[in-house]
Design brief:
two-stranded antiparallel ribbon, transferase, 12 strands, globular, nucleus
Length: 293
């Protein structure tokens, strides 16, 4: 994921972004892209499959009145990449804690305080989870099940699972189940794979009541598959999606508005802005809520 260089991008550049002429029916998504390498296989990663080769050190992060633990893992140790945000088709930035994850937790907490959201007894899916902090927040707020998905199985083994286990052990008072000898007895599952294929192994059942995702809409070619996956996994009629993202990702072309244009074109989901973060030091960040019409 590219770093934001400025919030003052030329207006004409942004206008062209949303003014591309359609050639295949997707309109704004149609322009040449380099083909990606084959995606890694879809896998369910078990809680016991923690990788000990890469050291995961824990440090606290305060958000929404909670102190959560976030792991720190070397990208070089896991992927032999030096401080890389992403390598398309190989590594999608899952070892970095993106600020959208914290924005999402703060927005979820506000939604709960205002009576617009409850996780109690809900089935939750976090897409592109990385550290998994939004999913962990849902678990601590009495979700019945939380499933975590990331592009890379290595991220799940080296970071997500250690993060989940550490936070559950640190906050046993919030658990509806128990943590015994490093094993979480409540339903927590981990899935890796590309959004175009991972639905084949997800335990969708009757669908997920809440789908969470942060910083997942930066890649233009991935947006159609992400949206199709959401539609396959969202429970009907009351399922809801919470998405945290930057308004525009400089250098890669994606962003919240690019994704929402796809949603609006399809016409199945209604979207509403939940929160906006404009601190003057980076691109505008947003949290959106989507649900079936």
């Amino acid at each position: 994921m590219a770093s934001d260089k400025s919030n003052d991008a030329p207006k004409e550049a942004i206008f062209r972004l949303f003014g591309d002429k359609p050639t295949s029916g997707l309109g704004f998504l149609d322009f040449p892209e380099k083909p990606l390498p084959p995606a890694p296989p879809c896998l369910e990663v078990l809680l016991s499959e923690v990788t000990a080769d890469a050291k995961c050190s824990m440090e606290p992060v305060n958000v929404a009145g909670l102190t959560l633990l976030k792991g720190r893992v070397s990208t070089e140790e896991v992927f032999a990449l030096s401080n890389s945000d992403l390598v398309p088709g190989k590594y999608e930035g899952g070892l970095k804690l993106w600020e959208g994850s914290l924005d999402l937790i703060a927005a979820l907490n506000s939604e709960m305080e205002n009576g617009r959201l409850s996780f109690t007894g809900k089935r939750v899916l976090e897409l592109g989870c990385g550290h998994g902090l939004p999913g962990i927040f849902a678990f601590l707020k009495a979700a019945a099940a939380v499933h975590f998905q990331d592009f890379n199985a290595e991220v799940l083994r080296c970071l997500t699972i250690p993060n989940v286990t550490a936070n559950m052990e640190e906050n046993p008072q919030y658990l509806s189940g128990e943590v015994k000898e490093g094993r979480i007895s409540t339903e927590t599952r981990f899935f890796s794979g590309d959004w175009g294929e991972v639905h084949s192994i997800l335990d969708q059942g009757t669908g997920y009541d809440v789908i969470l995702m942060a910083e997942t809409v930066y890649s233009i070619p991935a947006l159609p598959n992400l949206y199709k996956l959401i539609k396959k996994c969202l429970s009907s009629p009351h399922g809801v999606v919470y998405m945290a993202a930057k308004k525009y990702y400089f250098g890669v072309g994606g962003g919240s508005r690019r994704f929402l244009s796809l949603v609006e074109k399809d016409g199945l989901l209604f979207s509403s802005l939940v929160a906006e973060v404009a601190d003057g030091s980076s691109n505008v960040r947003e949290v959106w809520k989507l649900h079936l019409k």
